[in-house]
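FORM 12-B: Structure-to-Sequence Request
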């Protein structure tokens, strides 16, 4: 009877075996599910890394392009500012040249009139020494005054000389003589030929004698 029971398991033994089999199957399913989830997570991580690599891989190129464009814009802006400054300087220089040309227009004509003024002055000085009431002298005085006014109206002015301190920018020393007075040392004691300026530009230096 003992041998017969061993060959034919009891109902309890069958239940135990079935439970063990069910547990093993459940564990296998759980393990498979865990492996599946683990693989899925790994794939998602790999995909995310690839995406990030793709994004970060493109960004430096975009930054380089932006930097290159900014450099081009800065260079063009600098060129524009330089060109604008050069044009402004050219405009100012042109205006200055036009103003100077206007001021000195007819300079050669006015310079050629100066010897005529010298002749008038010498003639008047000679007449003052003889006959001050001579009608010819009065006529010369009138003409001389008109010439003098004409020169002043055109910007020609006489350079101050007699009694002034010698200035190489205005005067030309012909000779030196002993100063007749102490306070005339280094100053102009006589004028050989008058000097003139045209709108503050010297067109003829005053020829003078300096006291020493």
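FORM 12-B RESPONSE
SEQUENCE OUT:
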């Amino acid at each position: 009877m003992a041998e017969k029971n061993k060959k034919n398991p009891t109902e309890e033994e069958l239940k135990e075996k079935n439970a063990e089999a069910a547990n093993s199957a459940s564990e296998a399913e759980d393990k498979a599910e865990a492996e599946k989830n683990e693989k899925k997570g790994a794939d998602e991580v790999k995909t995310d890394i690839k995406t990030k690599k793709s994004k970060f891989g493109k960004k430096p190129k975009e930054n380089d392009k932006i930097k290159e464009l900014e450099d081009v814009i800065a260079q063009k802006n600098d060129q524009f500012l330089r060109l604008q400054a050069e044009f402004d300087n050219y405009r100012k220089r042109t205006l200055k040249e036009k103003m100077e040309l206007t001021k000195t227009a007819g300079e050669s004509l006015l310079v050629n009139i100066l010897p005529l003024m010298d002749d008038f002055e010498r003639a008047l000085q000679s007449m003052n020494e003889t006959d001050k009431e001579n009608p010819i002298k009065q006529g010369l005085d009138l003409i001389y005054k008109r010439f003098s006014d004409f020169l002043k109206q055109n910007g020609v002015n006489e350079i101050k000389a007699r009694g002034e301190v010698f200035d190489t920018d205005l005067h030309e020393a012909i000779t030196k003589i002993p100063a007749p007075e102490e306070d005339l040392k280094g100053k102009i004691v006589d004028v050989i030929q008058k000097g003139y300026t045209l709108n503050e530009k010297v067109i003829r230096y005053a020829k003078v004698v300096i006291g020493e």
